[in-house]
Amino acid sequence: MEEVDKILIHALRQVGTEVGEDVDRLNQFTSELIVEAVVRCIRVIDPALGEGLPTSLPPGMSARFRVGMSLAQACQKTYSNIRILYHTTSLLLFLAVSWVPLNCRLPLHCETQVSSHSFHVRPLSSPHCTNGQKYLKEVKDYQRDFLLPVTAQLPSQTSMVSSILEQHTADLSSAQEWDTEWKSQGLLSRLTPQEYRSRKLTRLRKRIEEQLRSAAAPSPESVFGVPRSASELSDLLHTFRGSTPSDLILTKGSHFTHTQKFTFTQVSASGRVDGALQNGFSANCALLPQEAAAVPSPVHTGRQSEGDAQLRQQEELAALQQQFQQLCSDVDLMVVFDELKQREMENTKNEEKTQVKKKTIDLLPDADNNLQKLQSQVEASANRVVNLASQWEKHRAPLIEEHRRLKEICSTKDLESSTKLSEINSLHDKICAATAEAKKKEESYKQLVTELESLPQDVSRSAYTQRILEIVGNIKKQKEEITKILSDTKELQKEINSLTGKLDRTFAVTDELVFKDAKKDESVRKSYKYLAALHENCNQLIQTIEDTGTILREIRDLEEQIETENCNKTVTNLERIMDDYKAIRQENSALAAKVREG
Amino acid sequence: EWNMATTETQLMLSVGLIEKDVNGDTLWVWCYPSVSAELRQLLLRKCCLTQDGRDFHTFVFGQFSRTWYYITTLEVQEPTALNKVTHFSIAVTAKDFNPEKYAALSRILCRMYVKHGSPVKMMEAYITVLTKGVCQNDENGLFLIKDYDVRKAYLAGSIKDVVSQFGMETIILYTALILKKRIVVHHPRIEALLEFTRVLPALAWHRKDWSVLHPYVHLTAAELDDLKKCPGYIAGFVDPEVSNRLELFDVFVSLPDSVITVSQGAKDAMAMGKLHKDVAQVIVQSAEDAERSDSQVIKDISIKTKEILTNLCALADACEDSKLTLEVLKQHHFPPATENFLFHLAAAEQLLRI
């Protein structure tokens, strides 16, 4: 990690970030330094993006937040760009870097380091082994007898490894690409691999054609100068379609179009050579040299000398003149042929007409009868045709019905298979997720096991669990006892209540009874007094007992409080505070005395 | 009259049936007497049932390889004798241009097919029209071929609409037609395209040639090859891509934008002068007159055209074998645009000698 930090800091210094000399670890970077480093890096990667970013953080918090957000966005953008770049060049970079033994350098340093062996690649040919492809005997023979082994195919040894690597990576990457493409699009298209490939080929061809065609549309400003590329492209387009480039010169057309082409000034939009021809024979000769100069000359004119160019131009001129003569004669011929064809067509038509008229004339003498006969014949053949049609219908209708029924079955099967496919996909996903989870769980299990092993072994877990279980049992028992006591208490209370009630009622009744008799008899009066006293005393007794009970409870509560208070150590704290207070007072007085003195 | 009937009915070539079923397939299910594989492909392409079911076009027509085709499409409503069919089209091919006639005929055939569920009854009606020129129509009346005169078809479009859309620029279309140039019209909706293009040949009324009209063309190799066989044409495309195909046209009309463009290669031949201005004035004035009907406007234009042609013929007659040459034309010292135009017109009308 230190090495990486050093490399990074060095790179940042190169970019212009002012990293202090003593800073050599990334975790020593302050936030300001980080911001400056990031901004400078972005400026190097994408100047346009980095222009708007400040290298130092503004003071205000909201401004800082804004800057931070813009930085984050810029980073994301460059990261995605770099990622694409990285993927396409990662392989090459690796290969290039691997030529530099042992050292791992940043891309900044790559140019200086790739000195020992440059990465040259040469094309190799090796026999391919594709399944199911039939091999021509000649190819097999060539591969067996003449094709050199790969090591001998190259001019220099230095390029051997790189060429082999290149070929293998190309094969590998194409196989991988085909795999991913087949898995994603190929399976969905439900075609065989060959069908899929051929469809892709036609699709691509079409696209190329379209692109070329749109590129072949020339600029409207040119007069003679239809650019060479355009006519080349239209040639290419024609080869796509199978027609020959000579069609450019002589297209099919009527008598009129040919006269048109050869008499009018016309710069056609598709780069035909005839576009350079002007009306009037006289003008032609004067123009041809010019046209020859403007007419596309081969690609490598630039490299040849003046004399050669002139010579070739003259040759071209002669050739074109010849061509022109030829074309004129061809045109005349074509004109004649056209007329001939037209006349022949007219002839046949007229012949047919005369035949019909002749027949009608023959039938004229007995016109009505014949007319009737003809009409009946026509009706008869019409009926026959209709009859045939109905017979055909008997065959056709069930066939169409069958076709539709089978199509329906096919589409339902399609539906089923696509649902199954989606099920399979979801199952696949679930499997992946489950394996990932299983891996995670395994990892965490391993971690926990190691943690467990590292924990102190002295106290056994079982002792703890036993104690816990004991305590739980005890608590349960206590709970039971408490509930029992509670229920007993309730019962007692109920009894007391009922007894008190009974007592009151009995006393009330007795009281009344005795009082009634008390008026008459002296002994009854006395007994009434004793009854009242008894009642009173008993009440007092009960009251006293109750009070005793309450006081006992209070005592218990107070005792509990005392215990808790004792734990608070309030007394000791208070004593300490008192001591401190005394000490401070003494000090205060001492200081005051000192002050007074001094 | 009998003669007319037979020559008329010999124009009908075939009738075909296309069905779209509950599976979403569009199939060519029946035809009489026979339709070539190429034409079948074409008709399936033109039929709106194969076009992703986005738009439904009741009636379209067009021309391919000198054959006119007329396709009527119907959605099947319950109750019906047809099983598992959601839509169907009837494609009639013929040698002549007459949309109204064939639209009426195919409507009758459609109704028959829906009612009976079998093409046999439909074929009976077709044969009756073929042999007798008449058949029963839906409203217990009669469909008569002779009610649909070809002139009516030619004049059925509205030239006034064309002029009201393009005003003085209509002269470009006129010039292109007169000089037998290639006009390509684009509109995304086929009905608008058909309505517009069918009336354009009327600008060259003296020729009464609707064979230059190809109102519904797709950018396929076969159709474009067929188109290129004609030196001059009016071709209608719904595909906006056609504007990039500069090799297909001398004049490009973008109907939705009401813009007419002359391609670079044709600018010389289409140069306009005072003569064109005169003709343009005639066209616009006649079309703007509310009292004049469409056929009267066409007549006015054709009168002016005849004037020009008569003058040209007079010029040509002055030369040997009644063919004009450039030198003779130059001697008259016309203004250059007019001279250019007359030269090209003479070529188009086969009055020119090189």
UniProtKB/TrEMBL annotation, chain A:
Keywords: Coiled coil. One of its GO terms (biological process) is positive regulation of ubiquitin-dependent protein catabolic process. Residues 95-567 form the CCDC22 coiled-coil domain. Residues 1-87 form the CCDC22 N-terminal domain. InterPro entries: CCDC22, CCDC22_CC, CCDC22_N. GO terms for molecular function: cullin family protein binding. It comes from the Eukaryota. The keyword Kinase does not apply. Residues 364-391 form a coiled coil. Belongs to the CCDC22 family. PANTHER family: COILED-COIL DOMAIN-CONTAINING PROTEIN 22, JM1 PROTEIN. This is Coiled-coil domain-containing protein 22. It comes from Xiphophorus couchianus (Monterrey platyfish).
UniProtKB/TrEMBL annotation, chain B:
One of its GO terms (biological process) is regulation of early endosome to late endosome transport. The keyword DNA-binding does not apply. Its main location: other. Residues 1-354 form the UDENN domain. InterPro entries: FAM45, Tripartite_DENN. It comes from the Eukaryota. Pfam families: SPA (PF08616). Keywords: Endosome, Guanine-nucleotide releasing factor. GO terms for molecular function: guanyl-nucleotide exchange factor activity; small GTPase binding. It is found in: Late endosome. One of its GO terms (cellular component) is late endosome. Belongs to the DENND10 family. This is DENN domain containing 10. It comes from Xiphophorus couchianus.
